[in-house]
Amino acid sequence: MTTNLEPVQTFKILIIGxxxxxxxxxxxxxxxxxxxAPYNATIGVDFQIAIxxxxxxxxxLQIWDxxxxxxxxxxxxxxxxxxDGIIIVYDVTDSETFVHLKDRFLEIQQFCDSDVPKILVGxxxxxxxxxxxxxxxxxxxxxxxKHNLLFFEISVKNSKNVAEVFNAIARLALKRRLEQxxxxxxxxxxxxxxxxxxxxxxxxxxxxxx
Length: 210
Prior knowledge:
CATH class: Alpha Beta
Strand order of the largest sheet: 2-3-1-4-5-6
Region (Disordered): 185-210
Number of strands: 6
Keywords: GTP-binding, Lipoprotein, Nucleotide-binding
Structural class: alpha/beta
Helix content: 25-40%
Largest sheet: 6 strands, mixed
Number of domains: 1
Order of helices and strands: EHEEHEHHEHEHH
GO molecular function: GTP binding; GTPase activity
Number of helices: 7
């Protein structure tokens, strides 16, 4: 592939969602490979960096963990500008965090370009939480399809699908940049993203039927 892009690309990735859904834990689990619970609420924003390889490119992810509390909304809204990807998190055991996703999308529509890639993530999909699960996988999947989102159910506690989420958002952000630069994204494994999505959805359906 011929491209005028540098082999190291930097992307601004936002993690958004209500307070308590596990945004900080998600970032820390991916960047440092550890899990801390309970986690203190983020004040304003937190920021960490991770490297993801995608084809011939190294994707340098600037991961921004935004506060979920309403009183910080005016601060965190400014961080939407210039975002290259957004990870939208809800808690599968708390239906209110899923209901509030519509408010998050209003913010995204107001402050972000429409083509910024977005991934929907249901956290706390732990084995011991199945009986407490209040957001059905089918409902979340329907929401994701309506808004043209990739969808993952994850467990930050046991690391289920955590790396897959960040690998997917990196590939999507890189694909968008290559398209904007006029380069053909032939080495970006978009089919693999779709395959992973299908596998995850199949697993989710099995989960819901148990």
